[in-house]
Amino acid sequence: MQLRNTLLLLSIITYTCTNGLSVDISPIPATAIAGDNLIVTSVITKTETESWKAFVFYVFDSGNTQACGGAPYTAPAACSDIFGCSYGFSFSCNYTHFSLLLNNVTILFKGFSIYAEVTIAGSPTVKSVTTTIIVKIPLQGVSLTPNASITKKESETQVFRCFARSLPIASLSWYLSGSILPTQSPPVITTDTVTSTYTYTAKKGDNGKRLTCTAVYESTSFTKDALLYVLYRPIVTISPNNSPFRVLENTTNMQITCIVTDANPAVTSFTWKKDGSTINGTANYTIPKVHRSHAGSYTCSAANSVGNSEPSTAMQLDVLCSYTNEICKDMWPNCQQTLLVENKMSGICSNTDFSHHCQKSCGVCSGM
């Protein structure tokens, strides 16, 4: 990163001694972006009659304090790092103006504190207030693993990981097609990184949606998303969908269809069952000529690479029997056409058991 000096001219807080001599330090706080340079300055304020003996910058972290630059009084002041500061600061001065320069600030200096101290003749040591180093790492983006697109079968799970680096730490949130998702577990935070995980369970309704991770840092935000492809079993229904479905005996080329209302991927096979027994393996089931033995309960199902569908709602096929005019006239003298009756029992309706096993259809005579 190209280095640039960071000198923040914030308000100067001053500690004043009773004799009028004071020392200040700035900026407060001492904020720098990682990779930049940081300059901390201190100025002695005094009257013409006042004098000082020595000036020192002190740097401390976690209880460890080091003198990092000082100057005995001369005119002009002789600047030197007489203390051998191990933190890498450069020291400069000009009589009553002093500076500490830190090149290429890193996060190792986060939380360090600096204050200035002046020794004057005949008075106690005068100290400035303390300034604290704040290191910032601007958010440059967010990463998501896996990204691009994923394919999962319904009910399968996928763990996503979202990562961002910044100081202060960015906040991470998960969204599914714009709707925020609940937090499953606290994020893992290090000095300058944050990682969040989300365990996604594939649902049919999520096919084609996007799972998004958003990182927010101050007024900046970045997003990364993954496109979800969800595979699921077919859903089927039968057409015609009225049950019972009544068909006249001897009707030709009667067809019922297994309709796929939803599937991903496409259906590869069909199964028809009558009264629980498999009878056909195509989408359309055709009966060339309807007999009374075709009466029963029909269901269909379909399959794709994910699995088999649930069976459709059953369709009850009822076969309507037909009798000659002579029989109709015997039972219903006013009927001049062939009468349609519904077979209510197994077996074949005959002339002799007609009144016991069959009943008039809709109470009217119908033509052939």
Automatic annotation (TrEMBL):
PROSITE patterns, A to Z: IG_LIKE
Membrane topology (UniProt): Single-pass type I membrane protein
GO biological process, one term: cell-cell adhesion
All residue ranges annotated as the Ig-like domain in the record: 124-223, 234-318
Signal sequence range: 1-18
Keyword Translocase carried by entry: no
Organism domain of life: Eukaryota
Molecular functions per Gene Ontology: cell adhesion molecule binding
Cellular component aspect of the GO annotation: cell-cell junction; plasma membrane
Protein keywords: Disulfide bond, Glycoprotein, Immunoglobulin domain, Membrane, Signal
Subcellular compartments: Membrane
The name this protein goes by in its record: Ig-like domain-containing protein
Organism of this sequence: Mytilus galloprovincialis (Mediterranean mussel)
